Amino acid sequence: MFEQPLPRWLAWATDPEQVRRAPFLSRSPLFTGLPRRLLARLSTRFFEKAYHPGEVVFEEGDPGRALFVVVEGAVEITRATPQGSYVLNTLGPGDAFGELALIDDFPRSATARVATPGRLLILYKSDFDALMEGHARIAVVMMRNLSRRLAIYARRQPGVMGGPGPGSETAGPL
Amino acid sequence: MKAGRLLAWGGVIALAWLARGLALPVFLAAALAYLLSPAVAWADALAIRRSVAVGALFAVIITVLVVAGFLLGPGMVAETAALVDRLPGLARQIDVGLNAAVRELAETAPALRRLLPEGGDWVQRFVLNRGPGEPGDLFEHMGHLFLLVILVPFFAFFLLRDMHRLIALVMDRLPAQHVETSVAVWRELNGVIGRYIRGLVLDGLVVGALAALGLWAARVPYPLLLGAFAGLANVVPFVGPLLSAAAAGLVVVLTPGQGLAGVGRVVMLFLVIKVLDDTIIQPFTIGRSVHLHPALLLGSVVVGNHALGVLGMIIAVPVATVLQETVRLLLEHRRMLARRDLRGRPGRLVA
Questions:
Q1: Are residues B336 and A84, on separate chains, in Cβ contact within 8 Å?
Q2: Is residue A74 part of a domain?
Q3: Which of A36, B42, B190, B302 lies 20 to 30 Å from B125, alpha-carbon distance?
Q4: What is the pTM of this model?
C-alpha cells in the first residue's frame, strides 16, 4: 500500500520533529511493544542535544539521572580497570544507554563518550516518573524490555547464571 | 575576552534593571504557561505543531471566558454594584460600632485612654478615600491593569510556543558533561513548580465554588463575589482563608436579620471548607509537590510578606520549595560524587 501525502493544511499543522521521533523510538529495543499512543506521549518528554567527537556524556561513577538514545553518530562505552580503559561496546543510531538511571540511584557503571559527531535524545528520570504515574503500561513494557536486556547481560557475565568465562565482559545496561 | 564577558554581563544586568517593570507580567505569564502546559504536551503527543496548538488553546480559553462572562458576569456585576452603593452606609455603620467600643473601653479602663486611637471614622477614611485623587492617577491604574491583561497572555503565548526551542538552544551550549545533572535538577524543579501552580489554581477554584455555594445556601448576601474572593484569597497561605472568612462575617454582621447565628453559620462554613481543603482537596490537587515543614512554610510566608507584600506571600511557598529541593538535589549530588571519589576515580579514557 503506497502512502498518500498529507493535505497541505494538515502537513502545515503537523510537527515534523514529533512525526520523526516517535517511529524512530519504536525501533529501539528498549521501547519495543509500546503502543503508538504511549510512544507518542513518551517521545514528547525527550530532549535532544548535539555532541562533538570526544565529548563525555557521563563518566563511570557519575550520578545517573537520565536515559540516552543515539539518534546520529556513534557512542563508545568504556570501563576503567587498573590496567587502563577499554571499550566495551560502540553504540549507533537507535541504541539506548544509561537506562538503569530510570530505576535506581546508583552511580554509572561505565563511561560514555561520543566517537563521531552526533545527536542524542535524553529522557530524565523525573519526566519518566511523572509519565509513569498516569501510564503504568509504559512502566510495564519498559521494565520487561529492560529485564530482557539484563537477562542477556547476566548470561554473558562470568560467574552469573553459569555464563562464559573470563574475558567475555560486554556492555550491559548502564 | 574577560573584559568583553564582563561588559556583556553588565549589559544584561542593566537591561534587566531597566525592564524590572515587566517582572510581574512575566511572572504571571510563567504561571499561566505552567497552568496550560499539560494541554500543550497533549497536543505535542498528537504531533500538532506548537503554534497551532497554542493558538487553538488560547482561542478555546477566550471562548470559555466569554461564555463564563455571559453566564456569571451579570450576577457578579450586580453584586459589585450593590456592594459599592452600600459601601458608604456599611463603612458608617462599622465606624459607629467601633467608636462606641473604643469609648466604652476608654471609660472602663482610663489607663488605656492614651493607647487608644483618636479621631474615629477609620473605616470611612480607609474605604472611601482609597480611590485615585486625580484623573491622571485613575488613568495610570487603568493603564497598569490594561497592560497586565494584554501582556500576561502575550508572554504566556510565546513561552508556551517557544520554550522548547529556548531549552534546545541552552542545552546545545551547555558543556556535555554537565547536561545530565544540571538539566535533571531543572526538570525536577520544573515538575514541582508546575504541579504546585496547577494544584493551587484547582484548589482555589474548588474552595471558591464551595464557599459560594455554602454562602448562597446560608442566605448570605453577595455569595458569588465572596466565593470569588475566597477562591482568590486561598492562594495566600494561612492569611487567605482568614481574610475570606472575615469578609463574609463582616457582610453578615452588617446585614439586618442575620444576627450572631448568621456569623456562627459563616464561621462554621469556612471552618468546614478549611478542614475539607486540608484533608481532601489539597492532597488531590497540590498533592506531594510541596514537602515543606510547617515552621518553614510559615516563616517563608512571613518573609515573603515582608519583602514583596501580597505577591511575596503568594510566591513564598513555591520559592521556598524550589530552594529546599535545589539544596536537597545538590547535597545528593555531592554525596554521590564523594562516594565515587572514595571508591577511586576511574583513569582517563584511551581513545
A1: no
A2: yes
A3: B302
A4: 0.74
